[in-house]
Design brief:
This protein is 37% helix and 19% strand. It is built from 14 helices and 16 strands.
């Protein structure tokens, strides 16, 4: 076993190297005829490998040490085969999806040397690869590591679940930290006895103490409506590991040399409340948990199409996971002309298809003219107004998003075991959201998915109260403590 650290030959970007594996879907998005679904490219690779005597099996495992190990199998071809560079690019795209869906900092590869060279080059030289490597180090505190090893030496597969959620015993506080408001609720045995929203502007605040004081204020206001506080749970946008913020837009203005105070913020809050059970999770995961609790189902993937694409996942037994679920960064389109995500610099990522960020591309394609300076939320309102009035141009925009989403669900089904999909976000609001769901369902039926998928939506009331209840249910109270409190 050895860690691969040699130089590598220069290759084109992944999208430019994939030409012969690009496949047009049976249902083409009307405003995006160049769309080439990721899942269909991988299917074509499997077919090509099955027909070739030169194909080489490849195993890839992504590890969060001590937490989870996710194994995938794919194919490569010898270095002198014309398909070699294209398959390297497919492998890189697969690894990128693994990194952002499942999360991890160590990549194990049982494959040819030239494949390892291509991966190493991508993560050390290509700008999009360097972005992923830097974010991995930020999330896990360890550099991204590539290990070349026989599969028999890989760590054993480990799904990893988080023992939080669905515990509503006792007196609890649930909070949700959003970009424009912070919410808090007080619950007694699952019943909401108080809730409120307070406007705030966290992304422009550089002082970690300001964030601490604002969150503490909400907790105290909720606690005033409880006889005692047994546990506190919360949700917030960003990546959280062991109750520590690793990257979060809420704290984007906090200087790097002060970010350690943000990382310890929720530990400090827990200490201030006497060390009671305290848990914080990504808001996408908590939203999915809320939907699963309302619908009474497991195996649920939640997708929110708003200012970005947010996602969360609940296992069949109702548990959350330690996975990233940052589907905004996973590539769903392998076209060399796919739109570029301005943050990561990569092409074809979900954020440019399933959020308001799709509108600058789709509105002009539909012949809908708006002022170039119009903010994205206002463009969405314009689109929704046109949809209500029956404008066929608006219909084509939503049909395009729906076709994209159907193929994305086929992609996501390669990484998640789900039968239920919770759809949320402003892009899904109104009759356009119905078209998105209907067209996605059509794609699933035509392209073939081996399991039924049921779409769910929640009312605004259920969303608000459900989010509070789900957040409050995150920390588990030890049984002995719960019984002791119940006897008082």
């Amino acid at each position: 076993m050895s860690t691969y650290a040699n130089g590598a030959r220069t290759m084109d970007t992944p999208q430019q190297a994939l030409d012969s594996f690009l496949v047009e879907g049976r249902i083409s998005p009307p405003l995006d005829p160049g769309f080439r679904p990721a899942v269909l490219a991988r299917r074509k690779l499997v077919d090509a490998a099955g027909r070739s005597r030169r194909s080489l099996p490849v195993a890839i495992a992504l590890e969060q040490p001590g937490v989870s190990v996710y194994l995938r199998e794919t194919w490569a071809f010898p270095e002198d085969d014309p398909a070699g560079p294209m398959v390297h690019a497919l492998c890189e795209r697969l690894v990128k999806s693994m990194l952002w869906a499942r999360g991890g900092c160590r990549i194990w590869v049982d494959g040819p040397d030239d494949l390892m060279a291509s991966l190493r080059h991508h993560y050390s030289v290509d700008p999009a690869g360097r972005f992923d490597a830097e974010m991995v180090e930020r999330h896990y505190g360890s550099p991204l590591e590539l290990v070349q090893s026989p599969r028999v030496a890989f760590p054993h597969s480990l799904d990893g679940t988080v023992s939080v959620g669905s515990d509503l015993r006792g007196c609890r506080i649930g909070f949700d930290l959003g970009a424009s408001d912070r919410k808090a609720a007080a619950l007694i045995d699952g019943e909401v006895v108080f809730s409120e929203e307070i406007l705030w502007d966290p992304s422009h605040q550089s002082d970690p103490q300001w964030h601490y004081d604002q969150i503490m204020d909400s907790l105290r206001r909720a606690a005033a409506h409880l006889p005692r506080v047994d546990a506190i749970g919360g949700s917030a946008a960003g990546v959280y590991v062991s109750n520590e913020a690793r990257s979060a837009s809420l704290f984007r203005s906090v200087p790097a040399d002060q970010f350690h105070r943000v990382r310890s913020l929720f530990h400090d809050l827990r200490a201030a409340w006497g060390g009671i059970p305290f848990a914080v999770a990504n808001d996408g995961d908590v939203t999915a948990l809320a939907g699963a609790m309302v619908a009474g189902v497991g195996g649920l993937l939640g997708i929110a199409m708003g200012s970005s694409e947010a996602a969360g996942y609940v296992t069949r037994d109702g548990s959350l996971t330690p996975w990233l679920n940052e589907l905004a960064f996973t590539p769903i389109d392998y076209s060399p002309e796919a739109p570029v995500d301005e943050w990561s610099g990569d092409r074809g990522c979900g954020v440019r298809y399933f959020s308001q960020q799709a509108l600058p591309r789709l509105l002009p394609a539909a012949g809908i003219e708006v002022d170039a300076a119009m903010p994205l939320p206002e463009r969405l309102v314009t689109l929704q107004d046109l949809m209500v009035s029956g404008d066929e141009r608006a219909v084509r925009v939503y049909e395009t998003i729906g076709a994209h989403f159907g193929y994305a669900l086929l992609e996501y089904a390669d990484f998640y075991d789900f039968e239920h999909v919770l759809l949320l976000g402003r892009v899904m609001t109104g009759p356009g959201g119905d078209i998105i769901g209907a067209r996605a369902t059509e794609v699933l039926a035509v392209e073939g998915i081996d399991k039924p998928v049921k779409f769910h939506a929640v009312s605004e009331r259920d969303k608000r109260h459900g989010q509070a209840v789900a957040a409050a249910s995150l920390p588990r109270i030890p049984q002995a403590a719960a019984e002791s409190e119940g006897s008082r």
